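Purpose: get a first structural picture of the assembly so the mutagenesis plan has something to point at.
Setup: four entries, given in the order below. No constraints added.
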Amino acid sequence: MDEDFLIAMGYSGLTGRLKRLSDSFIYTTKQYYRDHGLEIEPNWHMIFLLLKKHEKLTVMEMADALRLSHPAIVQLVNKMKKKGYVDSVRDKDDHRKFQLTLSRKALEKLPELELYWEAGNDALKEIMEQQTIILDQLEILEKNIGEADFRERSERNLKKYMP
Amino acid sequence: MDEDFLIAMGYSGLTGRLKRLSDSFIYTTKQYYRDHGLEIEPNWHMIFLLLKKHEKLTVMEMADALRLSHPAIVQLVNKMKKKGYVDSVRDKDDHRKFQLTLSRKALEKLPELELYWEAGNDALKEIMEQQTIILDQLEILEKNIGEADFRERSERNLKKYMP
DNA sequence: TACATTTGCGTAAGTGCTTACGTAAATGGT
DNA sequence: ACCATTTACGTAAGCACTTACGCAAATGTA
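Result (structure tokens, whole complex):
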């Protein structure tokens, strides 16, 4: 059994492979951070970079920018707050909102963190063999899914098989 | 805020995009199955197809074929057993092992399930615009990660930045 | 201005993977 | 034949996302 069955499956192996690949990045990144005593989690760098660029954002603005659900952001940000990387201030005009910013601690740590992320990017480039094809290909998938997702398309195609 | 920040991030957005894409497949597939009253979960089709091909396998053999950890298989298979799709028989020669097979119920349902999977594959082909580039590109990533994973490579690259 | 609707955020429960650890059965060396 | 090591499987805890639901604040409408 030395063949990778998911690869052998062709099209229908794609979704499993995406999950497997994504997880492999997440878990090795976690290990990487832990080895160096960094008290951050794998996906926090999205938030760091987002807040570095936009200064302050609300939960919904972040969810919108990252195309994630708002509870995903809430969970992420809560953990970052607990570690003291994110500050949260209630909006004066709209009391439902909280303006989120990078804390002083986050700004101080940022230059160091960026070294680790830079090394990660280099690793990524190696793995991608210095090419961006996969990024472009993913963008096509994302665009097509945006127009009609996997469920909708499956539904339509199902009619061909079940009259 | 109409730009997709993960895409705008370039290389460093890749891992987040893989996660997002993978999840989108998982959740829409779950919805798809639920809409049609199928009592199966998104990733069970890997097991169905694997056992269809190999008749009977142990947990470790499956983990090996799918390149997943053995607890992943145990969890999957336990749920499938609970729904009556998988039978488990203790190996006569090696009492640590269990030989897993598709149940009678699974074999009866298989032809119907395969229609739904076929429609899903067609959807996937649409999303991929009838091309296999992305599959080939993923295989390159998988191969390179197999040789040295993201953590190892990051570690090596880190030395360039931290003398 | 009163009231229904929308919006922002939060919590709960579910899914699926991982790593870490534990136990029992098989294997291997002397 | 014994004991240490390896292998197979299982369980527990953790992480990251989702959908579903709830509440309070803002908005829109008559």
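Chain B has a mean pLDDT of 93.
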